[in-house]
Amino acid sequence: MEFKAIGVLGAGTMGAGIAQVCAEAGFKVVLVDIAPEFVDKAVKGMNKNWSKAVEKGKMAADQAEKLNALVTTSTDNAAFKDCDIVIEAIVENIDIKKKVFKQLGEICGPDAILASNTSALSITEIAAATNRPNKVVGMHFFNPVPVMKLIEVIPGAETTDDVVEAVMDLSRKIGKEPVRAKESPGFIVNRILVPYINEAAIVYQEGIASAEEIDKAMKLGANMPMGPLALCDLVGIDVVLAICEYYWREFGDSKYRPSLAFRQKVRAGHLGMKTGKGFYDYTKK
Ligand code: NAI
Fold first, then answer.
1. Closest CA to 126 of 82, 96, 166
2. Which CATH number is 206's domain given?
């Protein structure tokens, strides 16, 4: 399977990063969102990153221009017509994703692969809504995409091995390291990371140590680059709470019961960095 043109649907945090790394690897990129301001913002962001690389002497000025020329934008999914793969990074809502994937199947050529960057939704369920469940796959990037090396590749129930292999190969071509994971809530990274953050919040809630002490302990004692509660503030306490609740529901195992500290902070509107307060107070800095 050869990839020449890559479609990216959704030009938000993840889509913009995915489009950037695909262009940097030399692929033609078609970036689509629902309104021109979203794609414009993403393209501006990419160009800003490339200009910075030029300023730092890490990229030639003409290279930045070449990369910019590789990216075309649209607000119409019909622009994906000639893409070999479309990577979807729109809102995390199963009904919207199913509707969009059905439409992508009708637009794209019969050999095109349809990939989803979903963090948690079922690839099998998304695939079942299309005319090609054997060619639908999870391609889970990490934030920020240009920095984070990992991609989790998740086959659905009917995804063929050659499609999985092709997506793993593409992942390497765009400078990432793929790992294959079975479809299961949280795949690998978030399945392990979220209960770890939850346990830190339980330790905090039990008054065993302050947020600063917990984070310091995990950084100096376990060599974590960032403490779990600072990480929780960065991701968003509401997001972490929702994931814990989802695991609890899906697995029916009380080991995923969310810390009361999450609920209390969410009720207070303290969602982390995005609201100025979470486990830490960012308004004072
Ligand atoms: P975001 O909110 O930053 O961007 C989503 C974009 O999709 C928006 O620009 C929105 O206008 C667009 N959009 C929504 N519905 C659309 C439609 N029907 N057609 C075209 N565009 C549409 O969201 P973000 O954070 O980039 O997340 C996107 C996906 O990636 C979600 O499935 C999320 O779970 C997943 N993800 C997010 C990570 C993160 O750290 N933010 C990490 C890994 C995966």
1. 96
2. 1.10.1040.10
Mean pLDDT, rounded, of the chain = 97
In a domain, 285, yes or no: no
Question: Where does residue 161 rank: exposed (0-12), middle (13-18), buried (19+ CB within 10 A)?
Answer: exposed
Of ligand 1's listed atoms, the one at least distance from the Cα of 32 is 20
Residue 138's pLDDT band (cuts 50, 70, 90) = very high
Q: How far, in Å, from the CA of 16 to the mean position of ligand 1?
A: 10
In CATH, what number is assigned to the domain containing residue 35?
3.40.50.720
Specify whether 200 is located in the same domain as 163: no
Domain that holds residue 126: 5-180
* Calpha distance 126→117 (Å, rounded): 12
Catalytic residue among 77, 88, 140, 259: 140
pLDDT of 191 higher than 90: yes
Task: Report the pLDDT value the prediction gives residue 109, as an integer from 0 to 100.
Answer: 98
**ipTM for this prediction:** 0.98
CA of 91 to the centre of ligand 1 (A): 4
For residue 139, the cross-strand partners are: 153
Residue 185: inside a domain:
no
Catalytic: 190?
Answer: yes
Check if 119 has its Cβ closer than 6 Å to any atom of ligand 1.
yes
pLDDT at 1: 81
